[in-house]
C-alpha cells in the first residue's frame, strides 16, 4: 500500500506480534462477577462470546489493524471472519496461512477478500454474523449501522477516523520536540493515519518559530521508494487516493489558505503516486481542509490566543478520535485534556501508546475501543444467572 518497508519491519510486524501475544496472555485474566445479593440467592454474571465476529479493516495498517481485532475476538472465544480492504488483501491471506500452520481449528479464523459494496455489505447484512468490528471512514461506518438495523441487530463497533487537533501553547517545554511531533504526526505513513495530527493549533506568538522547525523536519521526509530501507515517507496507496488528496490541496488554496510548504505531486516520472509533505498557514477552522479527513500528508495551521480558544477550535469538528496538547503548566494540561472531546489525549507527546492502553473515539469517530482489556468487552455478552437458594 506504499508504506515504507522500514515501518513494516520496525512498527507493523513487531506491534502486531505483541498484540496477539498480549491477548493470548489476557485470555484468562478477565474474571466473571457475583452480584451483592442477600443470603436467599446467588447471582452470577458471566461473559460469553458473541459467536461470529466479522472484522472489516482498512488498507493503511493492514496487519496491525487486523491484529487489534483478531487478538481480542479469538481470546474471548469467538470465530472470526476477516475482510481486508480491497487495496491490501495479501497480508490477511498470509495471516490466514500462518493461523492454519499454528493449528487454529478450521472455521475459527477465516479471510474473505472482496470489495466493500459486495463482501463488506454481505457480512454487514448476514443473519449469522453477530458482530461487525470496523475501522475505516465514517461514511462506511454508517452503512454498517444501517445494515445492522436492517438485519439481525448485530453488534457494531466503529473506529471512523478523525481530524486530530495538535495544540502547541507558548509555554511548551520543548518546541523542537513539539515541532518534530507535529511533523511526524501528519507525515508519518504519508498522512494515511486515522489519528494523524492534521490540525496544528498553535499559539499565535510562536507560530512562525514552530512552522520553521516543521519545515526542517519536512525537508528530511521527502517521498522515496517504499522498498528502500532508507525511505521515511512512501507512496499514496493508489491513484484514487492521490487525486483525492491533491483535490483537497487545491480546495485549500481556493478557500484562502496559504500554501507555505510542498503541495505537489512528486516523483511522477516513476509512475508512483507520491505527494510532497504539505503545510498550509492562515487556515480558518471552517475551511474544508480543516473539517474533512484528507488522509494524506496535509497540515492545516490555525492560530489561537488563549487556551479556551484552542479548546473551542479543537472541538469544532464532527470527529473526536484523538488530540494533543503541549504545555509545561500541569494545571493547564489537565484542564485542556479534560475539555477536549477525544478518546485519546496526549500531553507533551504525540501518538504514544501501548497495547494495554485503549484506543477509540468520541462523536463521529465512532464507539468501541481497540487495544487493552476494554477491547474484549465488545466481543462478549453478559449473562446473568440468578440462583434461588432459599432464606
Within the CATH hierarchy, at the fold level, what is the topology of the largest domain?
Answer: Aldehyde Dehydrogenase, Chain A, domain 2
Helix coverage percent of residues?
25-40%
Task: Provide the β-strand percentage band.
Answer: 15-25%
Q: In the CATH hierarchy, what is the class of the largest domain?
A: Alpha Beta
Provide a count of the helices: 11
Uncertain ranges: none
Q: How does this model look, in words?
A:
It is a single chain. The model has no long low-confidence stretch (mean pLDDT 97). Strand 13 (278-281), helix 9 (288-291) and strand 14 form a beta-alpha-beta unit. The chain folds into two domains: 5-160 and 365-388, Aldehyde Dehydrogenase, Chain A, domain 1 (3-Layer(aba) Sandwich); 165-347, Aldehyde Dehydrogenase, Chain A, domain 2 (3-Layer(aba) Sandwich). It has helices at 5-26, 64-75, 90-102, 116-125, 138-150, 175-187, 207-219, 239-254, 288-291, 307-315, 330-339, and strands at 33-34, 41-49, 52-56, 79-83, 109-111, 131-135, 155-159, 165-168, 199-203, 258-261, 265-266, 274-275, 278-281, 298-304, 319-320, 322-326, 344-347, 362-363, 366-367, 380-388. The longest helix has 22 residues, at 5-26. With 391 residues, the protein is α/β, with parallel strands linked by helices. Helix 1 (5-26) packs parallel to helix 2.
Amino acid at each position: 500500500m506504499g508504506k515504507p518497508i522500514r515501518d513494516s519491519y520496525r512498527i507493523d510486524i513487531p506491534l502486531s506480534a505483541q498484540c496477539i501475544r498480549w491477548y493470548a496472555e489476557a485470555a484468562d485474566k478477565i474474571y466473571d462477577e457475583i452480584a451483592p445479593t442477600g443470603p436467599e440467592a446467588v447471582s452470577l454474571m458471566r461473559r460469553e462470546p458473541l459467536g461470529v465476529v466479522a472484522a472489516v479493516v482498512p488498507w493503511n495498517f493492514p496487519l496491525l489493524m487486523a491484529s487489534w481485532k483478531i487478538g481480542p475476538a479469538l481470546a474471548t472465544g469467538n470465530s472470526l471472519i476477516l475482510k481486508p480492504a480491497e487495496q491490501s488483501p495479501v497480508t490477511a491471506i498470509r495471516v490466514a496461512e500462518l493461523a492454519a500452520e499454528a493449528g487454529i481449528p478450521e472455521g475459527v479464523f477465516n479471510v474473505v477478500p472482496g470489495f466493500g459494496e459486495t463482501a463488506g455489505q454481505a457480512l454487514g447484512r448476514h443473519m449469522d454474523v453477530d458482530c461487525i468490528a470496523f475501522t475505516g471512514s465514517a461514511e462506511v461506518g454508517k452503512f454498517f449501522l444501517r445494515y445492522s438495523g436492517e438485519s439481525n441487530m448485530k453488534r457494531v463497533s466503529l473506529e471512523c477516523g478523525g481530524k486530530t487537533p495538535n495544540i502547541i501553547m507558548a509555554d511548551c517545554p520543548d518546541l523542537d520536540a513539539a515541532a518534530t511531533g507535529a511533523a511526524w504526526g501528519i507525515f508519518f505513513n504519508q498522512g494515511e493515519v486515522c489519528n494523524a495530527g492534521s490540525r496544528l493549533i498553535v499559539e499565535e506568538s510562536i507560530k512562525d518559530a514552530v512552522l520553521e522547525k516543521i519545515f526542517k523536519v519536512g525537508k528530511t521526509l521527502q517521498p522515496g521508494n517504499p522498498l528502500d530501507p532508507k525511505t521515511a515517507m512512501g507512496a499514496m496507496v493508489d491513484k484514487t487516493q492521490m487525486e483525492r488528496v491533491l483535490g483537497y490541496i487545491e480546495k485549500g488554496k481556493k478557500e484562502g489558505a496559504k500554501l507555505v510548504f510542498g503541495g505537489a505531486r512528486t516523483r511522477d516520472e516513476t509512475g508512483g503516486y507520491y505527494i510532497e509533505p504539505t503545510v498550509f498557514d492562515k487556515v480558518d477552522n471552517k475551511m474544508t481542509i480543516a473539517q474533512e479527513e484528507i488522509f494524506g500528508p496535509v497540515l492545516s495551521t490555525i492560530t489561537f490566543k488563549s487556551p479556551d480558544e484552542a479548546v473551542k477550535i479543537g472541538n469544532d469538528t464532527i470527529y473526536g478520535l484523538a488530540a494533543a496538547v503541549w504545555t509545561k503548566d500541569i494545571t493547564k494540561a489537565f484542564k485542556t485534556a479534560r475539555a477536549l472531546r477525544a478518546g485519546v489525549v496526549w500531553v507533551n507527546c504525540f501518538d504514544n501508546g501501548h497495547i494495554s492502553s485503549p484506543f477509540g473515539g468520541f462523536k463521529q469517530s465512532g464507539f468501541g475501543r481497540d487495544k487493552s482489556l476494554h477491547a474484549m468487552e465488545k466481543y462478549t455478552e453478559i449473562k446473568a444467572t440468578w440462583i434461588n437458594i432459599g432464606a
